[in-house]
Amino acid sequence: MSQRFLLGRLLDLAVVLFGISVVVFLMIRLIPGDAVAIMLGANTDITPERVAALESRLGLDQPILIQYGNWIWGALRGDFGTSVWTGRPVAQEIAANIWPTLELTLLSILVGAGLSIPLGAFMASARGKGAEVAVRIGAIAGLTIPSFWLGIVSIFVLSKLFPGFQALGYVPFTEDPLGNLQRMILPVIALSLPMLANLSRLVRSAMLDALGQDYIRTAKAKGASKRRLIYKHALRNALIPYITSVGVAAGYLLGGAIVVEQVFAIPGLGRLVLGAISERNYPLVQATILVMTAAFVIVNFLVDLLYAVIDPRVSK
Q1: Which CATH superfamily does the domain covering 99-279 fall into?
Q2: Transmembrane ranges (predicted)?
Q3: Residue 193: pLDDT band by 50, 70, 90 thresholds?
């Protein structure tokens, strides 16, 4: 990987993160209505004094450029302000809820990305056979079934078949490993299924394209076995577009986790941001959206670097 390529990607990352911060900052301020009056709530007497006090507390009485400068400087130092309702630092609110989301997302990536390679390789090697057609139909179904619907149905079915199975809520892995994994099974299946279906079809297409190349025919003429052709030669070249798609899919899993967490009552960032939106807790909304979108961008930045390591031609 060349130094020029790395510096270029770092510059792109900085520009994108700056743009995200501006959009998130302005998005809250462009919401129709008086944000301060909304935050005071319907059960509070909205007086000029109360409005002025809250504006001063949130820094909304300053010019917008100074507001943005103070906010982004605090964010760079890990200070996102104070939650309007709890009075706790926003960073503490996020830290207390981020681990369930990270665990759900990472497990979903492991399941979706890990199983898609052998599944896609099987579909490519068994092209045209009944088993391949059945798996391909299942992959298409996985792309069309919404995660929240699959989650609701799976809870209903499992409660009928196994009434004692714990499918809702969350317990930390360090406190109860078995209970944690038990509660993660259904959310991970619901969240990872679209990723598994999409990536397995991608691996199948990439491998079928690779199997038609000249170097595969040359290796076959030299007596290479079918297994060696598929899993050593074709699969290696199919992994390049696969890795890029994993990075994009991982980012979208963060968005999908918001819905899945609601279905399975998991106290993660999804429930946190939805609760903050309903409570008009704008400092918490800003910070949570910024963290989630920044995570999406950083994951794709790391994928770009990995892509360049696998195929050095990209960095030239």
Answers
A1: MetI-like (1.10.3720.10)
A2: 12-31, 106-125, 137-161, 181-199, 239-264, 284-310
A3: confident
